[in-house]
Specification:
three-stranded antiparallel beta sheet, single chain, Phosphorylase Kinase, domain 1, alpha+beta, binds magnesium ion, binds zinc ion, binds adenosine-5'-diphosphate, Inositol-pentakisphosphate 2-kinase
Length: 406
């Protein structure tokens, strides 16, 4: 990318979350990811650079190690001409969903992350005559906390996602409670996975998006978006699944396409596996805490059939979902165990603000930083060193030593 000759007309709005806004290049398979902030939150360019660099370093030094080279794209921090960023910001403004406009794109620092565009395939020639599909899933946390610090009984029965559904519908963020429950998706049981994926397709909220040739064709921007239309989705997807099936359409065709879609997603999520089953691993995902969430309609029907004591995780060891769950389960503390440690660090830093820099609280999160954490105290001697280690790295170290393939 020639940063001297950036033209905003070559870039288009691609999507955004709560923290960043993404634009895609019209021809090349790259995106720029900019940070967003509330209107009066002033950050220096240096702080923004460091924030972005921390994201890259965390990807390189932590996530890559757990998920593997092939699954983590760290990107790089780039500095762009301010004129370009300002023009781009004006250009994309009208395409942004209203509910996301409480924050503004950072146009002052000129820094952004440059990443491969995962909604378009780099190896295009594989599928010459078929459209290129990209399915984005935000599966959320797939286990019920097992930390001894948990005090709310309900948290042992109902997963965080399902509890949040009630909150989000009550506060008007979404219109309808989704039947999706992450524990069903992560179960490895085909029936439960199909149910989870179909539910996710019904109420995509911000947990599922589908792109065709880089364009968003399915997934809702906010509660005001029109209801999911499966026949329209099927119309888009038919050339991919049934390329030679002429003009056939109607409910039968819709059902067939959705079924194929769910089947393909399931296959991908269970792929990349080593031989063997998770059950063989002493600390494999699913071997702690309940494996069914009481709020899931599927879980409820299982209980009615008296099948609540299902086999533990049926995920093939090493598949994508398995790895994701294993990383999530590094959270040995739950927020109830973590927050007191966070408060301890916060109070310490209020007392000794100059230690922020020495302890590298705001980065850089390079290799030396993680090594330093590993060397810190592992006994609770009341120090900030223990709190930092336990909160940031203690659980990483523990899992690393128990799961040889990581
Ligand atoms: N590398 C990428 N390739 C394609 N699309 C991306 C890429 N990174 C992000 N996106 C899209 O932009 C959206 C917002 O980006 P995300 O990183 O999730 O922002 P946030 O940190 O605010 O949640 C994502 O939901 C996804 O659709
Ligand atoms: Mg996001
Ligand atoms: Zn649940």
């Amino acid at each position: 990318m020639d940063k001297g000759k950036m033209d905003e007309n070559e870039w288009g709005y691609h999507g955004e979350g709560n923290k960043s806004l993404v634009v895609a290049h019209a021809q090349r398979c790259v995106v720029l990811r900019f940070l967003k902030f509330p209107p009066n939150r002033k950050k220096t360019s240096e702080e923004i650079f460091q924030h972005l660099q921390n994201i890259v370093d965390f990807g390189k030094n932590v996530m890559r190690e757990f998920l593997g080279e092939n699954y983590v794209h760290c990107g790089e921090v780039v500095q762009l001409p301010l004129d370009f960023v300002k023009q781009l910001c004006l250009k994309v403004q009208s395409e942004r969903p209203e509910s996301r406009c409480d924050k503004d794109l950072d146009t002052l620092s000129g820094y952004a992350l440059c990443l491969p565009n995962l909604a378009r395939l780099q190896t295009y020639h594989f599928a010459e005559h078929r459209p290129i599909l990209c399915v984005e899933i935000k599966p959320k946390c797939g286990f019920i906390p097992f930390s001894s610090d948990v005090t709310h009984e309900m948290k042992h029965k109902v997963c965080r996602y399902c509890m949040h559904q009630h909150l989000k519908v009550a506060t008007g963020k979404w219109k309808q409670i989704s039947k999706y429950c992450p524990l069903d998706l992560y179960s490895g049981n085909k029936q439960r996975m199909y149910f989870a994926l179909k539910s996710l397709l019904r109420e995509a909220q911000n947990n599922l998006k589908i792109f065709k040739n880089g364009e968003l064709i399915y997934g809702c921007k906010d509660a005001r978006s029109p209801a999911a239309d499966w026949s329209e989705l099927a119309h888009h997807l038919k050339p991919f699944f049934f390329p030679s099936n002429g003009l056939a359409s109607g409910p039968h065709c819709t059902r067939a396409v959705i079924r194929e879609l769910v089947r393909v997603i399931t296959r991908v999520l269970l792929s990349g596996s080593d031989k063997g089953r998770a059950g063989a691993l002493r600390l494999g995902p699913g071997s702690r805490g309940p494996c069914v969430c009481e709020a899931s309609p599927f879980g409820k029907s299982l209980r009615h059939q008296g099948k609540s004591s299902l086999e533990r995780s049926g995920l093939p060891k090493g598949c994508l979902l398995y790895k994701t769950l294993q990383v999530q389960m590094l959270d040995l503390l739950d927020i109830e165990g973590l927050y007191p440690l966070y408060r301890r660090v916060e109070q310490y830093l209020e007392e000794f603000p100059e230690q922020r820099k020495t302890l590298q609280i705001d980065g850089p999160y390079d290799e030396a930083f993680y090594q330093k954490l590993l060397d810190l105290s592992t006994e609770d001697d009341g120090t900030v060193g223990f709190a930092l280690t336990k909160a940031d790295c203690g659980c990483l170290a523990e899992v690393k030593s128990q799961v040889p393939e990581f």
